[in-house]
UniProtKB/TrEMBL annotation:
Similarity field: Belongs to the FKBP-type PPIase family.
Keyword line: Isomerase, Rotamase, Signal
Gene Ontology molecular function terms on file: peptidyl-prolyl cis-trans isomerase activity
Catalytic activity: [protein]-peptidylproline (omega=180) = [protein]-peptidylproline (omega=0)
Coiled coil feature spans: none
EC number: 5.2.1.8
GO cellular component: chromatin
Signal peptide bounds: 1-26
Taxonomic lineage: Bacteria, Pseudomonadati, Balneolota, Balneolia, Balneolales
Region annotated Disordered, chain positions: 92-123
Protein name per Swiss-Prot or TrEMBL: Peptidyl-prolyl cis-trans isomerase
Keyword Signal carried by entry: yes
Keyword Lipid metabolism in annotation: no
Protein's organism: Fodinibius roseus
Length: 181
């Protein structure tokens, strides 16, 4: 009788060990999965309403006028919800608010060129300078394409920026301003 109990126990233990081993060989839990970027096609800059280039080299293509109030434009102190996609010069998307087929906009809280501290003491880093400059002056519903030179992007790799492999790259951001808070 004892050997039957031991045999059953050992069989169950072996089965559980095998299940755990198979589970450990999988891709791991889904919460470790990196979100998949699912951006739309890039805006067609050949159909832009107009374009301009700043002294610093930021080129802004005005793709679509906004339907928001023309006297309510983004200012550095504003918080905004934006849909965007960042691409490298070869067209590869490296960042986007379009993730896993979601079209939810992203909230940006710091449109100033320097870090701010939130009411709970958390430091809010500024955006890439060219992206920040490109948002200023937008109205709700407006769409723009921003061509950001390295100096206004993640910068020179010798300057200790945190852009990883995007340092010294010209960046393209397609941006839609959803709402100004």
């Amino acid at each position: 009788m004892i050997s039957l109990k031991q045999s059953t126990f050992l069989s169950l233990l072996s089965a559980l060990s095998l299940i755990m081993l198979i589970q450990a060989c999988g891709d791991g839990p889904s919460y470790y999965r990196q979100a998949e970027l699912t951006p739309p096609e890039p805006f067609d800059t050949t159909q832009a309403i107009s374009d301009s280039t700043t002294e610093e080299g930021l080129t802004i293509y005005f793709i679509e006028e906004g339907d928001g109030l023309q006297d309510k434009k983004v200012e550095p102190r504003d918080e905004v919800y934006v849909r965007y996609t960042g691409r490298t010069e070869d067209g590869e998307a490296f960042d986007s608010s379009y993730r896993d087929s979601s079209q939810n906009p992203v909230r940006f809280r710091n449109l100033t060129p320097v870090p701010k501290t939130s009411p709970n003491g958390q430091q809010i880093s500024p955006l890439v300078e060219g992206f920040r400059q490109g948002l200023i002056g937008m109205v709700e519903g407006e769409k723009r394409t921003l061509i950001i030179p390295p100096e206004l992007g993640y910068g020179d790799p010798n300057q200790n920026y945190s852009g990883g492999d995007l340092e010294d790259e010209t960046l393209r951001f397609d941006v839609e301003l959803v709402v100004i808070l």
